[in-house]
Design goal:
Layout: E1 2-7, H1 15-21, E2 27-28, H2 44-53, H3 58-73, H4 81-84, H5 89-101, E3 104-109, H6 118-138, H7 142-150, E4 156-160, H8 166-185, E5 190-193, H9 202-206, E6 211-218, H10 221-232, H11 241-253, E7 261-266, H12 269-272, H13 274-285, H14 301-304, H15 318-327
Parallel strand pairs: 1-5, 1-6, 2-5, 6-7
Antiparallel strand pairs: 3-4
């Protein structure tokens, strides 16, 4: 199974690759949102860490994974993993978890003090104080008594052996992801998955796929700065120039793909050097030019070009632009070599 993916640096234009792939035959691209769950905070990297390093906390990692899976499985009509995976998301997730758990060894009462509400913490403190006094009077073991009020805040679960090797973990994860994606791609040769991974963990993710190909999209920092400040207004990108420069440089340095199949391109090249850049993308993804049957239906450089060179629309930002140009000169796109009428 060939999986095509994109990664960017927040607003750098990686979704343009997804839109472009919608114009090709034999590629499944039916997604209007980023499939970020698998390798997000409560996803597979967290499972891998605890199964490799924390013999005590595998059950918590699996619990968090399943809870998060349930959330994204029904997260509205649009961002709905159960719908995206044709009703099989929780079914295959359950099989994956069962494969990782191994043999059941007995009941488990989990105490998660961090997730307690303020009311639960208050009751917990009172009960602990009462039992401390009881233990002092009757000379009982605090550990023995403690189990009685512990159950007020827990549900009975079960503990498992979790005896699984590194190779077995990778194989189980490979089978899980393959089952999900093969179940929706039909007879298509490839599947395009937007937002599957970030630039920081491409090598870690690649081992779970037979053939993962990722395009990393970069963009001029000046346009990223102005886009968020005046258009998106997400407050994710720092508005202060000095903070933005530090933020941008940090994100650009957070990459890890020495051993993976990765192609880096500039978003601007998809506009000003469209034909050549599309040919590079086709070659990297293993596509034929004949598959490009709906040209410019989803990604039209003549429209997207208006998202570039934004500082011409905001003359009051000239000072900030000069600072960014000076401090991040290695990331500045050579706009002086092109003009808006020069789409090749």
């Amino acid at each position: 199974m060939k999986v095509l993916s994109t990664a960017g640096y927040y607003g750098s234009g990686s979704s343009a690759i997804t839109d472009l792939m919608k114009e090709y035959s034999d590629i499944y691209t039916d997604s209007d949102f980023e499939i970020m769950f698998f390798f997000g905070y409560y996803g597979i990297p967290n499972l891998h860490y605890w199964f490799s390093n924390g013999r005590r906390f595998q059950y918590r990692a699996l619990r968090d994974f399943v809870k998060s899976a349930r959330v994204v499985s029904r997260l509205g009509r649009k961002m709905n993993y159960e719908k995206y995976f044709n009703g099989n998301f929780m079914k295959y997730t359950g099989k994956y978890v069962a494969a990782l758990q191994g043999e059941e060894v007995g009941p488990l009462y989990e105490i998660d003090l961090v997730s307690f509400t303020e009311w639960q913490r208050t009751v917990w403190r009172i009960l602990n104080k009462v039992h401390e006094l009881t233990n002092a009077v009757y000379n009982k073991s605090h550990t023995d008594v403690r189990q009685n009020h512990t159950k007020l805040f827990t549900k009975k679960t079960y503990d498992y052996l979790y005896e699984i090797s590194e190779g077995r973990f990778i194989q189980c994860t490979h089978d899980y992801l393959s089952s999900l994606f093969q179940g929706i791609m039909g007879d298509n040769q490839s599947i395009m998955v937007d937002g599957l991974i970030s630039t920081a963990n491409i090598d870690d993710v690649s081992r779970y796929f037979d053939d993962l190909r990722t395009i990393v999209v970069k963009r001029d920092p000046r346009d990223m700065y102005l886009s968020d400040k005046y258009i998106w207004k997400t407050k994710v990108v720092p508005k202060e120039t000095d903070s933005f420069i530090k933020w941008f440089r940090h994100r650009m340095n957070a990459y890890h793909w020495e051993e993976s199949n990765v192609l880096c391109i500039n978003f601007e090249d998809m506009l000003f050097d469209y034909t050549s850049t599309v040919a590079k993308i086709e070659s990297f993804f293993g596509l034929k030019a004949e598959q490009h049957i709906r040209k410019r239906a989803y990604f039209d450089p003549r429209i997207s070009i208006h998202n570039c060179h934004l500082w011409s629309q905001y003359p009051d930002e000239s000072k900030a632009m000069k600072i960014i140009e000076s401090e991040l000169k290695e990331y500045i796109y050579p706009y002086e070599n092109y003009n808006e009428n020069q789409i090749r």
